[in-house]
Amino acid sequence: MSAHCQLTGARPGFGNRISHSHRRTSRRFDPNIQRKRYWLASEGRHVRLVLSAKGVKTVDLIGVEAAVVRIRARGVKL
């Protein structure tokens, strides 16, 4: 599963680990990605969305229908 949110577009961030001796090595900050299944009443079917934790809260706030409209506006096929 790719580490990006279909709704918010959150992707991994990159940075450095810094040890006690101050040596730097690469690291990756992954978003908290969840797979959630929602009932889409307008189409009479379930949709499975790959969302970050913030994306799940956004779907709870605006509703699944509005969230699917935003996802499709980004060009993602469901």
TrEMBL record:
One of the record's GO cellular component terms: ribonucleoprotein complex
UniProt region (Disordered), positions on chain: 1-27
Pfam entry (one): Ribosomal_L28
Alphabetically ordered keywords of this record: Ribonucleoprotein, Ribosomal protein
UniProt keyword annotation of tRNA-binding present: no
One of the GO BP terms on file: translation
GO molecular function: structural constituent of ribosome
Stored InterPro entries: Bacterial_rp_bL28, Ribosomal_bL28, Ribosomal_bL28/bL31-like_sf, Ribosomal_bL28_bact-type, Ribosomal_bL28_sf
This protein's record includes keyword Ribosomal protein: yes
Protein family: Belongs to the bacterial ribosomal protein bL28 family.
Protein's UniProt name: Large ribosomal subunit protein bL28
UniProt organism field: Streptomyces uncialis
